[in-house]
Amino acid sequence: MPLDDNVVEAIYREHGSALRRFVLSATRDPQLAEDVVQETVLRVWQHAPEVNGSFRSYLYRTARNIMIDNYRRSQRRPHEALESRLTEPAEVMGRVDELLNRVLMEEALLRLSKEHRDVLVALHYRRFTVNEAAVQLSIPSGTVKSRAFYALRALRTILDEMGVER
């Protein structure tokens, strides 16, 4: 299959900077990050017709998998393991997973209605009680409870559509 420069350029233009920051948070090596970003874009381009759900989440999961593959490959070659630019795999992958979860949750929250998002942010991120959220949002506490219930249902649906495992 010939490489479609326009598609690859579009993926880089739309997602390259954010993807590079994501990879750099794990590797702290700009050259390795660029290699992972390039491989990610190429792999995503090759499999784009198969992408179900969120393109961005697919992109980040692909980058994560490439970083894991690179680390495993370096461990199979002891002489290269000394040169490995990924440090402490559990720590790095923990940071990558945390960042990936944050990105996916932000994307999912943005797909909710403003009313549902506001209630979830107040209750789960700002840790308000129902009554505090009601005062903050200027709505009755019963409405806070109702919106929270339906917002969580909608969020689960969105996360399922994005292919995020819960």
UniProtKB/TrEMBL annotation:
GO terms for molecular function: DNA binding; sigma factor activity. GO terms for biological process: DNA-templated transcription initiation. Coiled coil: none annotated. The keyword DNA-binding applies. InterPro entries: RNA_pol_sigma-70-like, RNA_pol_sigma-70_dom, RNA_pol_sigma70_r2, RNA_pol_sigma70_r4, RNA_pol_sigma_r2, RNA_pol_sigma_r3/r4-like, WH-like_DNA-bd_sf. Keywords: DNA-binding, Sigma factor, Transcription, Transcription regulation. It comes from the Bacteria. SUPFAM superfamilies: Sigma2 domain of RNA polymerase sigma factors (SSF88946), Sigma3 and sigma4 domains of RNA polymerase sigma factors (SSF88659). Residues 11-77, 108-156 form the RNA polymerase sigma-70 region domain. The keyword DNA-binding applies. It holds the Pfam family Sigma70_r4. NCBIfam families: sigma70-ECF. Belongs to the sigma-70 factor family. ECF subfamily. PANTHER family: ECF RNA POLYMERASE SIGMA FACTOR SIGL (PTHR43133:SF52), RNA POLYMERASE ECF-TYPE SIGMA FACTO (PTHR43133). This is RNA polymerase sigma-70 factor (ECF subfamily). The lineage of its organism: Bacteria, Bacillati, Actinomycetota, Actinomycetes, Micrococcales.
